[in-house]
Amino acid sequence: MNYSKIMFMIMIMLTTLMTISSTNWIGMWIGMEMNLMSFIPFINKNKNLKSSRAMMMYFLAQSIGSIIFLFAILMNSFIMTPIMMNEFIKTAMVIGMAIKLGMAPFHSWMPEMMSNINWNEMMVLMTWQKVAPLYTLSNLMNNWSMYILIILSTIVGAIGGLNQTSMRKIMAYSSINHMGWITAMMITQTKWFMYLLIYSITVAMLCYMMNMHNTYFINQVSTMNESMTEKLTYSILMLSIGGMPPFLGFLPKWMAIQSMINTEMMILMTIMIMMSLLTLFYYMRMISSLMLMYSSMNKWMKYKSPNTMMVSLMLTINMSMPIYSIMSFF
Prior knowledge:
Blueprint: H1 3-21, H2 25-43, H3 49-75, H4 87-101, H5 109-114, H6 119-126, H7 131-138, H8 144-160, H9 167-188, H10 192-213, H11 228-241, H12 250-262, H13 266-292, H14 307-318, H15 321-329
GO biological process, one term: mitochondrial electron transport, NADH to ubiquinone
Protein name: NADH-ubiquinone oxidoreductase chain 2
Membrane topology: Multi-pass membrane protein
């Protein structure tokens, strides 16, 4: 048992909770800095060139975001409440958080860094590491720069992943696209954490499957010797994360679309839906080789393995969206 790894994981969780529970900007900044220092050893546990490169990229990007955020706080040191801030300081704080989240146009570090780490580290980076900056961003609402970030993130996240063969880079661009959706939901209503939760569950399941089969590039998908159930689960996971109904991943996008209709943000919603279709194209490309490949095996489970239960659970979770929809009416 690696006690250092456990300690850093506990620190990552505690520092995020510290940021969420802070009542002022300095407390949030301290929480995010401690979180950064806890996550860096978690990346650099493998002593090789790739993990060192990823560590430096992450450190520099997060440091620049923190410096801009701290500069804005110190500029505004006498007025500590969000209501009384002027637009310049608020915009600087939004930019600082956008750099930390890897939102476009400050996204360049994210795909490069993600292509140098493994699936477990990617899972933490795409889920838990987003919580603290997103919470801080949610306290900076109704700023003009957020609309630009949403449009650019959805466009860059959709177009950037089209020409990629690395699964990790595709997931990085997917994450950029989803950050745009979460931020749009943040403007229209307060239930953005529901989107993040469902997205985190889907991403965690996908990273588990990729790690289980040691898949890092698209051409490796067709070589995976899987049972029919695993193929189906992998395909459904991809469609779910792309927001295809009736799978679970469509539910948060449905909530976001509904809230944008209620606030009459039609142009923004149209751009986001069109870009979401592009992301669905590269998800389909990731599963087409698996689904169209000829196979004489027609059994659901080819062999009994410890992963059988987990794969079946993933399948059930992703198919449960109609149940949630029915429950929402009551």
